[in-house]
Amino acid sequence: MDICLLSAVQGTEDLSGVIIKLTLLFLLVPIFLTVYIYTAQRAKLRHQREKEALAVNFERERILAELEASKAAREHIAADLHDSLGQVLSLMVIELRNMAGGPQKAIARGLPRVTELGEKGLKELRTVAKTIREHEPLIHGLGMAFQAEVRYLEELGYFSISLDMPEGYEPPLGPDRGILLFRIFQESMNNILKHAKATWVAVALRPEGTDTMLRIVDNGCGFDLDHAMAHGGSGLHNIRQRTRLLGGACKIHSLVGAGTSITIHVPNHGTS
């Protein structure tokens, strides 16, 4: 009898323990779920804020790039006006001064020269106007912008330049990302014009898998990349920074006396 009673008591205690454990479990599960949901919501909110911050930074960088390029274009046009049209007008002023008050023969000799200078000035003015139009990037798409810029650089005559791009190709980057790739190209060209002393430049813009690939190769004087990056190299830093903003990869290879190559891969459907 005592043994039966003891077994009954133990069974009751075991059942009570199970009930207590189940009760604790049912209490802890909602708490755990509440904490988990709260943590997940916090993480989601933090991620959203990080995305918004990245978007703001991207827009800021895009605007800065636009302003920088616009300033560079204005400076280039101002230099063209000063160097070409300014020279023509100066020569016209000199000719007119020589003609003023001079004999009829001097005037007759000077008029053809003034006419020739006037025609040259008009030609220079048309060239500058064309330059202004061609510095409105992406007005006809990224592919057309590259073609126009290459034509413009070819007309400058500092080096021969070629563009390897599939006919009718338009990189699927959209205007915001496309303008950054175009600025990278312009930055590279500025570096070549200022430092490379190149006689030829080869540019390639084409699709590679799910990327858009831009490669720029020149036969200029080259440079030590580590030294350039450590001692200024703002142009190279700009190229790498913009490539990072595009979510792409940038590879720069250069040797002193052996030219430079810059290869950039940009994912076609990255975040804009």
Fill in the keyword field for this structure.
alpha+beta; 6 helices; single chain; 5-stranded mixed β-sheet
Q: What percentage of the residues does DSSP assign to strands (E)?
A: 5-15%
Total beta strand runs: 5
Element-level helix/strand string: HHHEHEEHHEE
Largest sheet, described in full?
5 strands, mixed
In DSSP terms (H or I, runs of 4 or more residues), the helix count works out at: 6
Rg from alpha-carbon coordinates: 34 Å
Low-confidence stretches: none
Strand order of the largest sheet: 1-2-3-5-4
Determine the mean pLDDT.
77
Distance between the termini: 82 Å
Shape: elongated
Helix/strand-derived class? alpha+beta
Estimate percent helicity.
Answer: 55-70%
Question: What features would you describe in this structure?
Answer:
This protein is of the alpha+beta class and about 270 residues long. It is about 70% helix and about 15% strand. It has helices spanning about 1-100, 105-135, 140-155, 175-195, 225-230, 235-245; strands spanning about 160-165, 200-210, 210-220, 250-255, 260-265. The chain has a 5-stranded mixed beta sheet, covered by helices on one side. Helix 1 packs antiparallel against helix 2 (about 105-135) and helix 4 (about 175-195) runs antiparallel to helix 6. The longest helix has about 100 residues, at about 1-100.
